[in-house]
Amino acid sequence: MEKILYKLPDLPYGYKDLEPYMSEEVLKLHHDKHHAGYVSAANALQEKIWEAREKKTALDYKSVLKSLSFNAAGHILHETFWKVMAPQNSGKNKPSGKILKAIEENFGSWERFKIEFTETAKSVEGSGWAILAFHKEHGNLNIIQVEKHNVNFYPEQAILLCLDVWEHAYYLDYKNDRAKFIENWWNIVNWDEVEKRFNKT
Q1: pTM to 2 decimals?
Q2: Residues 6+ apart with CB under 8 A from 54
């Protein structure tokens, strides 16, 4: 069986390209340190599991798999997070097409969706994420509040849009003003990517 490791993806834009809403300093720290850390930890845990299987030795499965869930989810969410942002002058920052229609049908209006998503992100306790997801079984859109990277996320959800509200995502730019960070983040959402992800569901 082929052993496949996680890889840190390149950013789809330059470190300065999301300014003034997200600084070069924050983007470098977030991508090169935090995201890279999750990739490294997830791969080390996979190696530990593979080694135990080969040697037929025991593992503390509860501890190892809990840590793998946290770090692998951190990698996957960050990989998505980079893709669903784009520079403000990219022409990708306004919702349209099928995703806009689906948002209006599910939430009543674009304005209502934005309020719900914003409040979800603002009210995450501690560190976590706000996610717009498509429920594969029910065929509708859901907003999910995730703590850490993997707590409260439930199965059958395809991630369309995610916002990282861990402090490392904004503290150097906004101090403890999470609300201001969220307000400014709306300017750099890549709705072309969200539409693409929605069309694949």
Answers
A1: 0.95
A2: none
Which amino acid belongs to residue 101?
A: K
3-state secondary structure the chain: CCCCCCCCCCCCCCCCCCCCCCCHHHHHHHHHHHHHHHHHHHHHHHHHHHHHHHHCCCCCHHHHHHHHHHHHHHHHHHHHHHHCECCHHHCCCCCCHHHHHHHHHHHCCHHHHHHHHHHHHHCCCCCEEEEEEEECCCCEEEEEEEECCCECCCCCEEEEEEEECCHHHCHHHHCCCHHHHHHHHHHHECHHHHHHHHHCC
75-116: per-residue pLDDT in tens?
999 999 999 999 999 999 999 999 999 999 999 999 999 999
Residues 52/26, Cβ–Cβ less than 8 Å? no
